[in-house]
Write a structure and sequence with these properties.
about 120 residues; hypothetical protein tt1805; five-stranded mixed β-sheet; 3 helices; about 35% strand
Length: about 120
């Protein structure tokens, strides 16, 4: 049976760990303390933006690049606005990174864990 930490607790602990490791991370949108979805925006100095979406015990990545449809940051913001319409309780964490293609999600972990009865 899967279990998990409350979202607000996990977000604050993760922010503290990221900031202690030298990254600039902040809460861009505060959601439900207990069970809100989590999205992480990786704003790269490389002109790209990646959005990580937690689903179960893994992260899914959506990458945006500057182009004809607007800047990467604008495209990511529009994507998150659409997600907020479906789930107003979601959380968004912004992290400033050197390279948005680096697999930061492997270091972050998720708030889900399993316990066998």
């Amino acid at each position: 049976m899967p279990y998990g930490l409350k979202t607000g607790f996990w977000v604050r602990a993760t922010l503290r760990r990221l900031n202690q490791n030298g990254l600039v991370a902040l809460i861009a949108h505060k959601g439900d303390e207990d069970a809100g979805s989590i999205f992480i925006t990786l704003s790269g100095r490389d002109g790209r933006t990646a959005v990580l979406r937690e689903q179960g015990d893994t992260w899914y990545r959506q990458t945006f690049e500057d182009g004809e449809t607007g800047s990467a940051a604008m495209q990511a913001s529009a994507y998150l606005d659409r997600q907020k319409r479906y789930d107003p309780d979601l959380w968004v964490i912004d992290i400033d990174v050197q390279d948005s293609s680096q697999p930061l999600e492997k270091e972050i972990g998720t708030r889900r864990f399993s316990h066998s009865d």
